[in-house]
Amino acid sequence: MGGGIFGPTMDLMRSEPMQLVQLIIPIESAYRTISYLGDLGLFQFNDLNAEKSPFQRTYAAQIKRSAEMARKLRFFKEQMTKAGLSPTKSLRSSDVDLDRLEVALGELESELIEINSNNEMLQHTYNELSEYKLVLQKAGELFHTAQSSVAAQQSELEAYNTTEAATDSALLLEQEMTMDPSKQVKLGFISGLVAREKSMAFERILFRATRGNVFLKQSVLENAVVDPMSGDKVEKNVFIVFYSGERAKNKILKLCDGFGANRYPFMEDLNKQFQIISQVSGRLAELKTTLDLGLAHRSNLLQTIGFEFEQWNFLVKKEKSIYHTLNMLNMDVTKKCLVAEGWCPVFATDQIQNGLRRATLDSSSQIGAIFHVLQTKDSPPTYFRTNKFTSAFQEIVDAYGVAKYQEANPSVYTIVTFPFLFAVMFGDWGHGICLLLATLYFIFREKKLSSQKLGDITEMAFSGRYVIMMMAIFSIYTGLIYNEFFSVPLELFGQSAYGCRDQSCRDASTAGLVKVRATYPFGLDPKWHGSRSELPFLNSMKMKMSILIGVAQMNLGIIISYFNAKFFGDNINIWYQFVPQIIFLNSLFGYLSLLIIVKWCTGSQADLYHVMIYMFLSPTDDLDDNQLFFGQKFFQILLLLSALAAVPWMLFPKPFLLKKQHEERFQGQSYARLDSSDYPPEIEPHSVSHNHEEFEFSEVFVHQLIHTIEFVLGAVSNTASYLRLWALSLAHSELASVFYDKVLLLAWGYNSIVARSIGLIVFISATVGVLLVMETLSAFLHALRLHWVEFQNKFYVGDGYKFFPFSFASLGEDDE
């Protein structure tokens, strides 16, 4: 499928040949060896210490140290996020000593924590003083208002003294003046701020707790203030509570604490009020300057960290991953070497050995690492080398199941068949162009978009941009065949082959059109659209086309199963699975496909439903008008007998042959030297592997019975399942036609710009929302089902596991 100039040819059909390797690494070069293998990214380590807990492993202390450094880096990232800063990518080399980095991270963390603590204390004081200043101002206004009111009342009282009633008032005033001053009631007051949403409840409970023996006055603050305790902006009211007695005071203090009201002292003396306000204002100005300097220092510190953050983060992740991998290695009995086991591709042998030699030289080790290939019967991991184009198609296949080691990879065919089946259901070249333009945007800007964080749906569309591009190109192709451009037929490849019987065209809707020119050269003749026979004709064409496509793809799946069996040397599957399956499928549905093609070529009026039904019910009856070619009756009987014979052929021989093969192996007739085998032990077929397992004939027979029944019934149901190509293609075409005729053309019939504009907006919204989004998703899912169920179940085992090499390239993708 293409390859590099310096590397081996990339083969996507079968996974890369793998080998189980044992590495014996001297301790002094172990760190560099693992580091160089991580740079190479072609070695998957097996955990040789799976029975040990993480704390019992050799390098637990180093991992703990790396985890602590990672925690500090996460703390720095949180602080940068809060400050609205983002780490900048450093272009400098990564030659940083980890010991110095650990010390530097500790110092920076301590400094940052101290700065944050000081800033919090200063901010708390600043917020308290800000509230105090507001209380002084608002409470001063309340007292000033009250004093003005008293002065006005006294002037009114003096004016009233000139009347006769003034004598009585004078007597009363004289009595007040002569009262004992010790018997006069002195009121106390408490001032502060309470949240506006709690002010009504505060007032109500205050009244009830003191039985109405208090006087509460509130003033609304226009702007929200920062609460000293929570640090959030809260809308508050300034309050003053006048009370009498210590019991009332204690109740008020408890209620203030309960409602989270902040209390502040207040002086009645006007001069003292102005003095305190001026002191508070001066203190606020000093705190503001100190806070600004602290925040600037913190910002500079975070920017300094930001310049180095990505580099530090990568180094810490790299360090942690190296020691985590070293913990998977076994310590030699001499405690001078580490033993590693793992899988690597055969083509990477030289690269890995070069890395081992380089690690030995760089660490000045006197003993080199040993590279030893092990023989094993364990199934190796599956590794396909993909690029940015093929990776999305490979993911579609892997979502169903990872390929068994070196079995045929469906993604080779999926690259073509998946977008083609999608396009059969989505055939409209106008819609295809819209999809193509959208995906070209992703492709041309992929470098920029790949480094950004996208939303879930956008990320999904971006990762599958090349799949969508292929779907769009195939949709344009099938749209040209269907001759649909937003459901409108166009004469792109010449004039229509059909015309009216005369110039007046009066009988066009009754008698129909006649052929006046050569057949339309490519795709559907535009005159079919809008005619009375359009739907019957398109239904017949698309239904038969769906069956032809389905039978062809299912045959492809069965043929791939032959190449799988041949590759693994499994003759039993070739003769007792592939052969009867290909005979059964083509005796029934291959024959149906042949009849469809013959009928198209000859223009016969034969009823294919009748032919297929009576092929089973009355195979010996004459076909009469339904005969399409000479010898059809004899040919049908032969096909029917072949299909019936294929079922026991598929069911019975294979279990007995497997049983015989198992017995021969234990009689010593099938033993051979390891080096005489035609294929490596790891790719032995199931029929000659697992030597020492007991053979359960009943299980094998039941499994084969299930497989046979599934194939026989599946041949019918899978063929019927391909009719979804016809159904969705018809639905897409009809929806597009309805939106065009009943929305756009209807709105265009009005001689009003507003009506036309509304119609155009509705048409575009419906086209994008329904046809370009929902219909695309629907056709995608149906094409996915046809590949996973109808195609892949003919040959694909999919019980393998992926090759996950130890690689530093993936560290940037995974967050801690």
Automatic annotation (TrEMBL):
It is a multi-pass membrane protein. One of its GO terms (cellular component) is vacuolar proton-transporting V-type ATPase, V0 domain. GO terms for molecular function: ATPase binding; proton-transporting ATPase activity, rotational mechanism. Its main location: membrane. Belongs to the V-ATPase 116 kDa subunit family. Keywords: Coiled coil, Hydrogen ion transport, Ion transport, Membrane, Transmembrane, Transmembrane helix, Transport. InterPro entries: V-ATPase_116kDa_su, V-type_ATPase_116kDa_su_euka. Essential component of the vacuolar proton pump (V-ATPase), a multimeric enzyme that catalyzes the translocation of protons across the membranes. Required for assembly and activity of the V-ATPase. Residues 91-125 form a coiled coil. It is found in: Membrane. The chain crosses the membrane at residues 420-444, 465-482, 545-563, 575-598, 634-652, 760-784. The lineage of its organism: Eukaryota, Viridiplantae, Streptophyta, Embryophyta, Tracheophyta. One of its GO terms (biological process) is vacuolar acidification. This is V-type proton ATPase subunit a. The keyword Nucleotide-binding does not apply.
